[in-house]
Amino acid sequence: PQRRARGRTRTPRPGVVAGQLALVFGAREVRSSAAMIRRTARLRREFVYRKSLEGKERELYEKKRKIRQCLEEGKVIPTELRNAEVSLRNEITLEDASTAANGASADDEYARANERDPKVLVTTSRDPSSRLTQFVKEVKLLMPTARRINRGAQVLPDLVELCRSNDFTDLVVVHEHRGEPDGLVVSHMPFGPTAYFGLSNTVMRHDVKDQDIGTVSEANPHLVLENFTTPLGKRTANILKHLFPAPKDGKSKRVITFANDADYVSLRHHTYEMPRGAKSVALTEVGPRFEMKLYQIKLGTIDADDADVEWALRPFMRSGKKRRL
């Protein structure tokens, strides 16, 4: 009997088995998470390297543009370009309509944005007030393909990883100060850029004075981008317009306007009717409306603390009184 007792296998308790399985599967999740982090870091390094080549490509493009202009106008080649004239002329002769453009645009973050409709994730800062929650709902209604989630206790890296794993193209985060929306962040996925805007003069839908504004249409809106003429303005317009899908036909009667005036971007949302043809247009404001002021563009996602700053507002630097950015 003693030998039989010694040779008998002991069945482990269910709690011990569950603990061992949790350790095994937990270790697998940690390894897969670490592999995903390494892959994201590698892709980010490759993207930053491609962006670092833009300066050289832009400089080469400017040299070829000057030589092409001199050849067309019959002028003398500038002195600083005479050493490289032969090689640049050979490159010019081999170019076609698609390769003659600035090569730096090949690494643009929005180079393939038009291949599919944007998919935007909208959320708030932590512990939002009821006014901010209502405002975010209205911001979500502005973008037909947007989805809204409650922030909860999620940190920024979790939000960015959620966007990447679910194929979102942009992340929009709205902030507040004492119940008043005062900040909006637009972060393009998967590698940036991230634009930071300050908000002011916020008027929500139920505060709009127009009568019978009705429900918000889900049709893709027409966009009006007014007075974005400088390089920074074009960059800002590029970030904003890729939050909205293109209208699929000409029947959409929604219009969203971004009007730049003295570096303040006014957003207005209207619908229109033409009761007596094209010469009679009746506008109805749908809301919301607010003013935005850009104060930073970062070459990275919203969670990247070490990302390079492409542009930042310096309100106290010396400049002319009427200088516009």
Can you describe this structure in just a few lines?
With 325 residues, the protein is α+β, with helices and mostly antiparallel strands.
Notes on the protein architecture:
It is a single chain. It is built from seven helices and eleven strands. It has helices at residues 2-7, 14-52, 54-73, 85-94, 130-142, 156-165, 231-241, and strands at 120-124, 146-148, 170-177, 180-188, 194-203, 222-226, 254-261, 264-273, 282-285, 289-299, 308-312. Strands 1, 2, 3, 4, 5, 6, 7, 8, 9, 10 and 11 form an eleven-stranded mixed beta sheet that branches. The radius of gyration is 27 Å and the shape is globular. The N and C termini lie far apart (93 Å).
Which outline best applies? Answer: globular
Residue share in helices? Answer: 25-40%
Proportion of beta-strand residues: 15-25%
- What does the radius of gyration come to? 27 Å
- Summing up helix and strand content along with how strands pair, one would put the structural category as alpha+beta
Mean pLDDT: 82
The H-and-E topology, N to C, reads as HHHHEHEHEEEEHEEEEE
Number of strands: 11
**Main beta-sheet annotation:** 11 strands, mixed
In whole angstroms, the N-to-C terminal distance is 93 Å
The number of distinct helices, counting runs of at least 4 residues, comes to 7
| Low-pLDDT residue spans | 103-107
